[in-house]
Amino acid sequence: MTDLEGRTFGPGSLAVSEDRVAAYVEATGDDPRRWVDHAPPGFASAALFVVAPDLLSELAGRSVVHGEQTFTWHRPFRTGDRLTVNGTVARYRERGGVVYVGFDVTAGDASGDVMTGSSLFLLSGDSAPLEAAGEVDEPPPHDAGTPGQDERSASRATLVRYAAATGDWNPVHWDHASAVAAGFPGVVVHGLLQAAWALQEAARHRDGDRPIVSARFRFRAPLLPARPVAVKGEVDDAVVAVSVSDDRQEYLSARIELADE
To answer: What is the Cα–Cα distance from 21 to 212, expressed in whole angstroms?
Structure first.
């Protein structure tokens, strides 16, 4: 499948509608009072998944793990925007039985780019890139655990709402059998939902419609639904280092650059 390198996907269309932004804000637990005329930065995931499903369908039959993600915001997502989205396979390399796929995405309109990003996907050979930690029972659909102060968690129902808001319908996030077959203990929380939590932590340090300039996320371990996690940020000048973790391990780390004051 090395012929994938250089392949383009799209153009696709993304309507930044009021209803879709509201659905995204609700699914990610963001502040609906802040995001009325504009979408939160994490809405970039909806742009990515205009074209990413076509790439992932080309990779069908192999377990896929989202390893890293970067986004750069050139201007805010405005409610009412209709954006054109394109994707390109920038890299396809195999090492140690794991294939590394780099996928670049752009979303913009006639005035220029709104967002650019780059994804790193890891593909298995004959087995999953992550070793299964032992199958677990699924929690009830609406069980989000009991998060404490400054904690976040997601129920299985939350994952379906998030998938509907972004288009990220990878079955490992909603189908137990598919998740186990991919090497997970069960259904896992979207990495980009955790990224949305990290962006919210950083965005509270800036007002305005474009609080964040760029971000890099590393997805370090699968998070199961109904497991509360702490989202903690440390600010150094205009950079926020954010960690999503619990007493077991770290699930996501991020380096997020804030916009100018």
So the answer is: 18
Find the length of the chain.
261
Distances (CA, A) of 192 to 8, 61, 223: 22, 23, 12
pLDDT at 146 over 50: yes
The yes or no reply on domain 2-258 and CATH 3.10.129.10 is yes
Q: What is the DSSP letter of 209?
A: S
* Structure token digits, residue 148: 């404490």
Q: How far apart are CA 170 and CA 172, in angstroms?
A: 6
Give the Cα separation of 261 and 205 in Å (integer).
Answer: 9
Is the peptide bond preceding residue 228 cis, with omega within 30 degrees of 0? no
State the pLDDT confidence band at 182, using cuts at 50, 70 and 90.
Answer: confident
Token digits of residue 29: 């637990």
Cα–Cα distance, 83 to 13 (Å, whole number): 6
Threshold 0.85, pTM exceeds: yes
Q: Average pLDDT of 149-164?
A: 96
Q: Report the C-alpha gap between 190 and 159 in whole angstroms.
A: 7
